Amino acid sequence: MNRENKPSPRIRAMHAQKPEKNHVVKLGPDIKAKIGMQLRLMYGEVVDQGVPDRFVEMLKRLDDPNYEGK
Amino acid sequence: MGLRNNVREAMLEAVPSLRAFAISLCGNVDRADDLVQEALLRAWANMGSFQPGTNMSAWLFTILRNLFRSEYRKRRREVEDIDGSYAESLTSLPEQNSRLEIVEFRNALKLLPSEQRESLILVGASGFSYEEAAQICGCAVGTIKSRVNRARSRLAEILSIDSASDFGPDRETRAVANSDVVRPNRS
Predict the structure, then answer these.
(1) Share of chain A residues as helix, strand and coil, in percent rounded to the nearest 5
(2) Average pLDDT over residues B66-86
(3) Over the Cα atoms of chain B, what is R_g?
(4) Which fold does the domain B1-92 belong to in CATH?
(5) B95-167: what CATH class?
(6) In this predicted complex, what is the ipTM?
(7) Considering only alpha carbons, which residue of chain A is nearest residue B15?
(8) pTM for this model (two decimals)
(9) By CA distance, what is A61's nearest residue in B?
């Protein structure tokens, strides 16, 4: 836990900023933007698949009294 | 009747994002889809507990997350499979590079404590506010903020150590990163 939160010397040098009180590295806007971009790319990869048929089918049948989810 | 249709519509709309979140939780597409289905059925059965006027998407995420934590985690016996069946299921990415980057990024995410990972995803990818994410995770807003910060720091650390070849600031990624769109522009 402690180890995890300690920035490596390389990271410190890279950002050249003081670590915050609990050793969380203060990230520059560039790093944040890059992480945000990667996150959205990863997430968007799934979102772009749309709604798979099984869910369309399932939602259609919700009002069907005989349907209890496959 | 009207409410039922509205709920159904909202569920349909939420499915893509719920799936993306579920995959990030359990790392396996098939199990994620089962989880989403179960969450939707549960939401449908408990429609009465939804408060009209509040965010339905956050409500659905809350149900899914609780379900995952109460049942799926206990049942988990296999090692999380992120670049196995998951990678195989994705065939549509145009660029090999972004494919590799995503795999690398997913692997880095996997190294985070689950609370940090889910907080980061809810805020950074699902598009929830800190307040909504706190509601979904059942914790204080400050806790979410701190988890997100830790998650980012840790990711920055892992990714710059592991990829000697640079976690690349080229013009395209900057353009995407700086735009407001939730989805990446791949054209």
Answers:
(1) 60, 0, 40
(2) 63
(3) 17
(4) Rna Polymerase Sigma Factor; Chain: A (1.10.1740)
(5) mainly alpha
(6) 0.73
(7) A51
(8) 0.72
(9) B8
